[in-house]
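Dear support,

I submitted the protein below through the web form. The confirmation email said the job was done, but the results page showed an empty box. After a refresh the structure appeared. I'm attaching both so you can tell me whether what I see now is the final result or a partial one.
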Amino acid sequence: MSGTPDEPDFSGLEGGEEQAAQDAVQEVVNWYNTQIITERRAPVPDEERIENLKAGRQAALDDQAQLATADTDEAEQIATAYAARLRELDDS
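What the results page shows now:
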């Protein structure tokens, strides 16, 4: 249930896990995009790092595509994994 009376309670609605997973994966994709842009703009771009970042981004995009057929449990697992992944990336 919501923390305050001003916040609507959507906990009973279908699709919450799927949306959370989509959002989590998209945040990771956004992180990779930002890193790729930053590296490309560097005075001497590290091509190996760019390739590694692109591979990481593609893996996230592949997982995002899998969400179309994921059940609620799978979506919840993906959301949890990508939330943790984003924390790792932000800390690196």
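Response: this is the final, complete result; the empty box was a page-load delay. The two ends are 34 Å apart (CA to CA).
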